[in-house]
Amino acid sequence: MSRFRVGFEDSLGRILREDLCVGCGSCVASCPLGCLEYADGKPVLIGDCSSCGVCSRVCPRYECSVGEIERLIFGRERMRGEEFGVYRRVCIARTRLREVRVRCQDGGVVTTLLLYALENGLIDGAVVSGFDEDEPLRAFPMLAKSKGEILSSAGTRYAYSPNLLALRDAISHDCRRIAFVGVPCQIEALRRIQILPVKRYAERLSFVIGLFCSGCFSYDGLAEMLRDLLRLDPNDALRVRIKGDIAVFTVHGDESRVSLRDAKKYFRRCNLTCTDFSAELADISVGGIGLEGWTVTVLRSSVGEEIFDDAASRGLLEVRNADEETIRLLVRVSRRKRRIGLSNLRRLGYS
Ligand SMILES: Cc1cc2nc3c(=O)[nH]c(=O)nc-3n(C[C@H](O)[C@H](O)[C@H](O)COP(=O)(O)OP(=O)(O)OC[C@H]3O[C@@H](n4cnc5c(N)ncnc54)[C@H](O)[C@@H]3O)c2cc1C
User: Fold this and answer.
1) What architecture is domain 2-57?
2) Is the backbone of residue 231 left (phi > 0), alpha (psi -120 to 50) or beta?
3) What is the pLDDT of residues 10-41, one digit of tens each?
4) Distance from the CA of 92 to the center of ligand 1, in angstroms?
5) CB 127 within 8 A of CB 178
6) Which of 33, 120, 138, 257 has the highest count of CB atoms within 10 angstroms of its CB?
7) Domain edges within the chain
8) Span 219-266: which CATH code?
9) Would you give the DSSP letter of residue 168?
10) What is the phi-psi region of residue 141: left when phi exceeds 0, alpha when psi lies from -120 to 50, beta otherwise?
11) 182: Cβ below 6 Å to ligand 1?
């Protein structure tokens, strides 16, 4: 335990200086003394740090044993050849709910599962990313407690949304069972919160949905990319979809496209050192790779499989087994992200 009695500056200072911090907000939400504030996408020390070590232990970029988390969540560590982490089944699925279909990003699996869980009393809130129609590209953490709020949060914002910060709202609103949706770095941070445990959050978690992620912008980076590469006013952009390339749909009904290769230099720098594409520690991981209108769904834990199967058996989802091509693509993209991330980490002196 003593090796964890380390102060914020000593543990996370280097992570911040080297642009490794993903800005997930896990340390800010978990600091027992409330010494940290979230500003400009990063934690900032604003009080007297007692060197309790909690901030480092919930940071997805600080030393961590993924095997320990896998044993806790899945009952075993990944086997050799499980390139995208532990899993039970991979399916493709899409919603049967029209109100979800009209606003979701891919097949609407995430929103359908959250609605199913809320309406059947499995959760009383979900931590998601909010949508603001005045600034549709901006993403912000939100605790959704009603059907309307869950529906309004559907769709993907490619700007980073530090969803973990909304865990605090779950406490202030006295939510006792929550679902959490987030990108891979947030899922790893959340699992660290569970394993430590930061009890006030850990004991409320019902299930966790992870989103595949090959990269993410800051809001400013996304706006700059639109201005530079597409000569587009960010306020005119309504929706972004990344599938092979980046498609931007505008309020005027136009569609513009830019290659992912050109856009990557506008991604957040910490992306370069991310190694997890498919949210390998989630109960259920989802993405749209290679498909239109369907969500590739990786069922990893028994908790995740049960919720998904229950929702499907009630007719909320149309489900098919994933074909070989989808699995091969998932393996390829996961391997690539891990290889690039690890090589950049090694260059910085991390093993
Ligand atoms: C930054 C980012 C990058 C992604 N990159 C890829 C990729 O490279 N390849 C791929 O296959 N899939 C990627 N995805 C996942 C994909 O876009 C869809 O979220 C996924 O397929 C689920 O689709 P759905 O229709 O089932 O979800 P929906 O039913 O539309 O629900 C989407 C959920 O995601 C939440 N959300 C939206 N934006 C954010 C955000 N910025 N941060 C956290 N949560 C958010 C919403 O609140 C909602 O709960 C990415 C997602 C994000 C957020």
Assistant:
1) 2-Layer Sandwich (3.30)
2) left
3) 889 989 988 899 999 999 999 999 999 999 99
4) 15
5) yes
6) 138
7) 2-57, 83-216+268-347, 219-266
8) 3.10.450
9) H
10) beta
11) yes
